[in-house]
Amino acid sequence: MDQNDNAGFWIVTGAASGIGAAVVRAVRHSGANVLALDVDDAKGSALAEETGALYRVLDVGDLDQWQQFADYLASESARLGSPTYIHLNAGIQIAPPDVPLSEYQLEAATLERYRRMMSVNVDGVVFGLQTLLPLLAPGAAIVVTASLAGVTPYAIDPLYAMSKHAVVGLVRSLAPELARRGIRIHALCPGAVATEIIPHAQKTNDALFMAPEDLAKDVVELMEEPESGKSWVRLRADKPRYVIRAPGDKTR
After folding, report:
1. Which listed residue (55, 104, 154, 160) is catalytic?
2. At 230, which CATH number?
3. Separation between Cα atoms, residue 243 and residue 186, nearest integer Å
């Protein structure tokens, strides 16, 4: 991985596919260093070979693995430097994409699926922030991949919506304290994106999906966005993103 201090040092979770992989490609194309994290070793290794990114296996829902990752960053600090941009992107839905939509409903959720989804979607953000925030200097920025389901209802997968509402609430609530440290945090809330977690039953002929590359551009731009703690919605690639503010939030 070539050192390019001017472009910053990125860490991306859920990096082996979807939005995460698109961000890794965009970041490497810009010349920045990026450390890609994922549980899919085959795809992660292939992405690293393709882009020149550094790749490590990491289960974002496992606190022990985050602690081991912190030790790794400390041991590599002279080579990598401090992270500048953090993209906490890893996420899954409550059921595998190839099952009927009925499997996504509350009554069908198994304990194993529920705990796994919460570990990725919520614990992965919490543990990532707990691990990485102590390493960040003023001027650093964080983008968390939430979802339109984090600010609106999503009846197809209510538990997924719950997990993304939790992420949005965390971003909004952390922003004031992080601002005192000179660190910005954003929640990106896209509508339908063509990623591997989308239920196959939703992929009908009339369904419109954005490409992961459309959202990668948003992630890169939000890293420089000064208005922190907001929920940035992207409904379509040809429409601008906009903020859905929390009740009582009148900041500009």
Report:
1. 160
2. 3.40.50.720
3. 10
